[in-house]
Design goal:
With 323 residues, this protein is an alpha+beta fold. 42% of the residues lie in helices and 14% in strands.
Length: 323
């Protein structure tokens, strides 16, 4: 004690945010508190989050491996923004999803909305604006309920789907009901607000050929397939009407809720409607190894032919596999 001998003192444990800066990680807390106190009304129960709480296996495997410095800065921003979002959306607790690769997904409990999903997308992954626009434009008949978003944190709030089982081809009735809704509500791109916000499939396919020199392996072989895919598109789909497609309706993006299947993680792509079916076909063939691939392909083509022609599905399946 540095007080003079005989001094009287009182220990006050109620003084909040009185940090002693000894280690470098404590400086992060202090910087956050300064920013927060400058512009935000402080809450008595404010909880400080550290970016290590938001590192998942998916982020470690993908974003941290490809963009280590950018990912570290992004996670730090989430740590500083989460308390504000928790107050805004009434969030009480969260569990991170370990599988999401292109962003951070938190399963959370909200005092306002009930069970929700909070999804953060970094600014170096070009998906945030398009995904919000897709939730706003695609039919709520088959999409997960979109509750809101926050531009500053690049975060979305979605209704959590339960029991949240992935789509299964064996659940034929549920799957048929789902794709019936897709078929009935898919909209021509000309009927969509600001269609330029969404990715042009054909232009992106062509861009992949222009970027062929960046491919590290099997470059000549991939170039040949891209040239064939573009020629096939020109011949068979150049006159096809374009639709606003979810763009990634494989089984892991179609999950079971209390009223059937709903879709999540839309890409928002301007493309022929065949795109909405071929990714389910391709991923199913790859994931179900108990069937022979040819037999499984024929089974799936026959099933999906109720929504698109069998030949056009097969042609677009090749194009999209190359894509």
């Amino acid at each position: 004690c540095q007080l003079p001998e005989g001094s009287k003192f009182y220990l006050n444990f109620d003084f909040k945010n009185n940090l002693k800066l000894t280690y470098d990680f404590e400086l992060q807390y202090a910087e956050y508190m300064l920013d927060y106190l400058r512009g935000k009304k402080i809450k008595g129960n404010l909880k400080i989050y550290d970016k290590s709480q938001f590192i998942t296996e998916g982020i470690r495997y993908f974003l941290m491996r490809l963009y280590p410095d950018k990912t570290d800065a992004w996670l730090g921003k989430i740590a500083s923004e989460y308390s504000r979002l928790a107050d805004l959306w009434g969030l009480k607790s969260f569990i991170p999803s370990q599988t999401s690769r292109y962003g951070l997904v938190l399963f959370a409990e909200s005092e306002i909305y009930g069970d929700v999903v909070v999804k953060f997308i970094p600014d170096f992954v070009d998906r945030f604006e398009t995904e919000i626009a897709s939730y706003q434009e695609l039919s709520p008949d088959y999409m997960c309920e979109f509750l809101g978003y926050d531009d500053a944190a690049r975060a979305m709030l979605l209704r959590r789907v339960s029991p949240a089982k992935y789509a299964d081809f064996n659940d034929n009735i549920l799957l048929t009901e789902f794709f019936d809704k897709v078929d009935k509500t898919i909209r021509p791109i000309k009927a969509v607000n600001e269609p330029e916000r969404f990715l042009d499939y054909y232009a992106d396919l062509q861009q992949k050929l222009k970027d062929i020199d960046t491919v590290p392996f099997f470059r000549d072989r991939i170039k040949e397939h891209l040239q064939t895919a573009i020629a096939m598109y020109d011949r068979h789909f150049s006159d096809s009407p374009l639709y606003l497609c979810h763009g990634d309706l494989h089984a892991f993006n179609i999950i079971q809720g209390k009223d059937g299947y709903v879709a999540v993680d839309p890409l928002g792509i301007r493309a022929p409607r065949e795109l909405e079916y071929v990714r389910f076909i391709r991923n199913d063939i790859l994931n179900i190894r108990s069937f022979g691939m040819r037999e499984r392909l024929n089974l799936l083509l026959s099933y999906f032919s109720r929504w698109a022609g069998k030949k056009s599905l097969l042609l677009f399946l090749y194009i999209d596999t190359v894509y």
